[in-house]
Specification:
The chain is an alpha+beta fold. It is built from ten helices and 17 strands. Strand 16 and strand 17 form a beta hairpin. The mean pLDDT is about 95.
Length: about 425
């Protein structure tokens, strides 16, 4: 008989989401916000309570631990399970009030602190599959934080179970909770030697059975426009307004294609994420995304061409475009050795689900880890509509994810 983890998962998840862990892209500290350590310290204490080994909170805010191996008569690959503790800054993660919806009846869910926020099954098809499940939402004025505290709760529940049941055969299982994933720095300040694993999995995905081994490739870009500043009363034929040029730049870029709101599937995009400044100097931040290297380069070339056209429009201005690599599609490396994916598929099948994979229109810590040499596919953890007030998480899916991880560590220990 399979154990149920729902009680432990629920208690942990509700505890974790109440802790504000918003990261901050503008910050230069590591981690970017001190409050992420509030959750890391709670997790550190809980890992000690359940008997984990090698527990270490690094100066850069990474929490590491080991569940010692129970197979000792042969060499067994070391598996690492990762989740990130931070939440996105695009929507408030402060004073989260989680709401439990037990035995979901399939009807629209009105969030009480903002009744205009409604989870409607007609607009959210996944809800139709959750009749009778227990769901978690926020109250309407904040995000929930399931991304990725669902993953954190899943890993902690698995760790507790493995440590309480040494008869389960597995190798060393490493745990790594990362900060700053939402701002693209999730594994920037940790070495593979610190993780000390042969294969890894992030718990940072959606619906049951989902295994992600293909992500966007990503660059970011910063365009700086320096105009000519002068008193507006004497500006004729002298002033060059950087704000006006910034709006022209946006007009030069695609409006009805190659933007997030006009693409899906395998189509990439150019996305303006921030504009700030004044008439003298204005900055525009962009993210560039595509599944293929050539497509990503084409987006960068399009942005640079638009900047060149803007520069030619008024040579008195100074227009610069700096493109910085962020991460690459993990498929480029995993397709050379699909064992981590195949093991995950087998673990999913063992708990009675059908594995499914689709390209993720985003990135994970696993994108960078895989590129650096640690193969790290992504597993489901039951979170939906993330990064906004209509976020929700399925307790049933989280329970299934623990079972998948339980099978997975045993599969890697098979002789």
């Amino acid at each position: 008989m399979h154990p149920s983890f729902v009680h432990d998962i629920e208690e942990r998840f509700l505890r974790y989401v109440r802790i504000d862990t918003t990261s901050c892209e503008a910050s230069s500290t590591v981690p970017s916000t001190e409050k992420q350590l509030d959750l890391q310290r709670v997790l550190e204490s809980e890992l000690r309570e359940i008997g984990a080994s090698d527990i270490r909170l690094t100066p850069n805010g990474y929490l590491l631990a080991t569940i010692p191996k129970t197979v000792t008569n042969r060499e067994v690959p070391v598996v690492c399970l990762l989740a990130h503790v931070d939440t996105v800054e695009a929507f408030s993660g402060t004073d989260v009030v989680p709401i439990i919806h037990r035995n979901y009846d399939g009807k629209p869910i009105v969030l009480p602190d903002d009744p205009s926020q409604v989870l409607d099954p007609e607009a959210i098809p996944q809800l139709k599959e959750k009749h009778g499940d227990t769901l978690f939402t926020a109250s309407g004025t904040t995000l929930l934080g399931g991304d990725d505290k669902a993953g954190v709760a899943i890993i902690m529940s698995l760790a507790k179970h493995l440590l309480a049941h040494p008869e389960i055969p597995h190798g060393d299982v490493r745990i790594c909770f990362t900060p700053d994933e939402e701002i693209g720095r999730g594994v920037e300040h940790i070495e593979l030697e610190e993780i000390a694993a042969d294969v890894a999995y992030t718990l940072d995905g959606g619906g049951p059975g989902e295994i992600t081994y293909e992500t966007f490739s990503a660059d970011k870009a910063l365009v700086t426009i320096e105009g000519v500043s002068i008193h507006p009363g004497t500006a004729k034929d002298v002033m060059v307004n950087a704000i006006n040029l910034a709006t022209r730049l946006l007009d030069f870029l695609p409006q009805y294609a190659r933007t997030p709101e006009t693409t899906d599937g395998r189509s990439g995009f150019i996305h303006a994420t921030r504009i700030e400044g004044n008439a003298a100097k204005t900055e525009l931040a962009f993210i560039l995304r595509d599944f293929e290297r050539d497509g990503l380069a084409a987006h960068g070339n399009a942005l640079q061409a638009a900047c060149a056209a803007l520069q030619a429009l008024d040579p008195r201005a100074k227009v610069t475009c700096q493109i910085t690599p962020q991460y690459r599609n993990m498929r480029y490396w995993l397709e050379n050795d699909m064992r981590p994916v195949e093991k995950a598929r087998e673990a999913v099948r063992r708990i009675g689900l059908e594995p499914c994979s689709r390209p993720a229109r985003g990135g994970t810590d696993g994108s960078r880890l895989t590129e650096r040499g640690l193969p790290t596919p992504n597993l489901f953890c039951g979170m939906y509509n993330v990064h906004g007030p209509l976020e929700w998480v399925s307790l049933g899916d989280m329970d299934k994810a623990v079972h998948v991880c339980l099978e997975l560590v045993q599969l890697w220990a098979d002789a």
